[in-house]
């Protein structure tokens, strides 16, 4: 099997035998710290579908045929980047110590207390394994209903397959994997399933660093390696293996976007992603200027040297789009005043003609900035093209499944018989389970969340049901409504 990677280091996918069981694939839950002690969600939380997911798994269990099923969460299951809760009280540190002991990590209270740096108190804990376990504990504590139902799903004989994404690279640590198993086993026991059943469920929870292939026919990968900003340069760990090697985009999330999500909780959910700045400019122009002139440079100073090129690639266009038009408009005003020999204060010197001319200069300079932006920012190829490359190199595959973009897709990349005889190879993107705010879209919108796909490898076409959506209001599964905007020749 050749996964045909175009970005990052190529690895071989793990082969998974479905044993004739149905497979349900979804992605991008982005679960953070959930409910706090006040009964409110933390400001950086994006996942509010705990009870909806419980009802979704109830529905899937009712469809079971006695053989069990596989649930694949294809990346960004837990959003470790959004979990900023740190231990503060003596009880917090004692709890942290006890949680670590459950996964075989021994730390003294004084060691844990001294391990938290001043920067972590502001931005959240870093990526060491024992700090990542604390973050997972916070997530499970804040989403109890979700994880109780997930535990029952596995205890009932089903499997849980977790694929690593760019927001949950922490699954790299064995201790983090172990704590999910421990927590689900504890909920299983509390649910009365019996200790023997609960102990056996650990083997039905599996983790995948990169990708997997179901019965040699369906390729599944999160997809973050196909976007340079979300895939790390180098190996998975740094500092003698004690910390994770995060991609450029993760630093921006950690040190910049998290701060704004406390005021604008869904800022990172804006699609397309470059429109985040446009939304901020519209909502709070002063805040946007502060982002460009103060917050962003401060965040960039914390980014490792290997991402300097990426920093410049994104900083220069921002300057062109925001600061350059403002500077051009102000410069135009002062040049007009100097040409007439006026020495009036700035506001008193304004006239209708001046305002119109300055506005025109601002508008034209902004258009010029957008033109340069299109030249400076090299667009990544669409994920459908990456899927097509994988399918072309592996004609025995029936389908390729990605996540990551939060945009559900389903296409048939090749014309009839072009690549694999009469087989129609397909590409799917399973979308997300969090709200998405599209600022530029011609889709028939309705709703693009709660999306998934059912795979049945006993069928000739294993993905014949195509993309579906859990309709929580009606308590049923509906087909996903998507438009094909390709122009007919």
Q: SSE layout and pairings?
A:
Elements: E1 14-16, E2 22-26, H1 50-63, E3 69-74, H2 90-102, H3 109-115, H4 118-123, H5 129-142, H6 144-155, E4 159-163, H7 174-190, H8 195-200, E5 205-208, E6 211-214, E7 218-221, E8 237-238, E9 243-244, H9 248-261, E10 270-271, H10 275-283, H11 285-300, H12 308-339, H13 352-376, H14 383-393, E11 399-402, E12 409-411, E13 426-429, E14 437-438, E15 451-455, E16 467-471, E17 476-479
Parallel strand pairs: 1-6, 2-3, 3-4, 4-5, 7-11, 10-14, 11-13
Antiparallel strand pairs: 2-15, 6-7, 8-9, 12-13, 15-16, 16-17
Helix pairs in contact: 1-6, 5-7, 6-7, 9-11, 10-11, 11-12, 12-13
* Helix coverage percent: 40-55%
Radius of gyration: 25 Å
Number of helices: 14
Number of strands: 17
Give the overall shape, derived from the CA principal axes: globular
The percent range for strand residues is 5-15%
> What kind of sheet is the major sheet?
7 strands, mixed
First-last Cα distance: 35 Å
SS class: alpha/beta
CATH topology label of the largest domain? Purple Acid Phosphatase, chain A, domain 2
CATH architecture tag of the largest domain: 4-Layer Sandwich
What's the pLDDT, averaged over the residues?
83
Placed side by side, the strands forming the largest sheet appear as 5-4-3-2-15-16-17
Count of the domains:
2
Give the CATH class of the largest domain. Alpha Beta
Provide the low-confidence segments as ranges: 343-347, 441-446
